[in-house]
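Researcher: Sequence recovery benchmark, item below. Answer with residues only.
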């Protein structure tokens, strides 16, 4: 992303969109979870709407933070593509000199949906993780990624806004988030394998 000239706002927006994709796929996981011995259907009727409202509220709030951080970076002259220029994020904040490029956002969202969709298909359905997954367990599963985004926005976003958007700080932020995401993904696979083996 850094090497494609993406600015701070677009990178944070991509992370925010990813959490939306993760949340949407998690609704499917909750609906298909078959590990509850009793009350599975009743739990789904109660927990799925709660998750949509609760997670959706956090997701929306993080979208606002993305816009604020990107806007602060832009006001300080640090928000544009590597080398300078205006930036921002979701909810009406301008992104780059020409504004938010819908094609870039659409392609990014599509790529993220395909990536997480393949993992859902291969692991959750193909390897049978749904058989041991519980509605309650699935409900809280995506919040780890939400916390990573929160830390990325607060820590990385404000640091870059104050220090500038040279390739180095942005690359460090992207690499750190990728490592956290990979760790969460591997931990999720380990937990699912342990449940299936039990």
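Model:
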């Amino acid at each position: 992303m850094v090497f494609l000239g993406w600015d701070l706002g677009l990178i944070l927006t991509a992370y925010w969109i990813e959490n939306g994709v993760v949340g949407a796929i998690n609704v499917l996981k909750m609906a298909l979870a078959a590990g509850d011995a009793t009350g599975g259907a009743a739990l789904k009727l109660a927990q799925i709407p709660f998750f949509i409202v609760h997670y959706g509220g956090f997701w929306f709030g993080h979208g606002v933070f993305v816009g604020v951080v990107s806007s602060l970076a832009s006001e300080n002259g640090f928000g544009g593509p590597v080398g300078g220029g205006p930036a921002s994020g979701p909810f009406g904040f301008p992104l780059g000199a020409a504004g938010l490029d819908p094609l870039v956002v659409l392609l990014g969202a599509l790529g993220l949906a395909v990536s997480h969709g393949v993992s859902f298909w291969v692991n959750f359905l193909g390897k049978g993780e749904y058989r041991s997954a519980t509605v309650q367990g699935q409900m809280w599963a995506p919040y780890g990624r939400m916390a990573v985004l929160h830390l990325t926005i607060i820590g990385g976003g404000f640091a870059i806004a104050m220090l500038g958007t040279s390739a180095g700080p942005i690359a460090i932020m992207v690499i750190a988030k990728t490592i956290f995401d990979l760790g969460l993904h591997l931990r999720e696979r380990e937990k699912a394998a342990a449940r299936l083996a039990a």
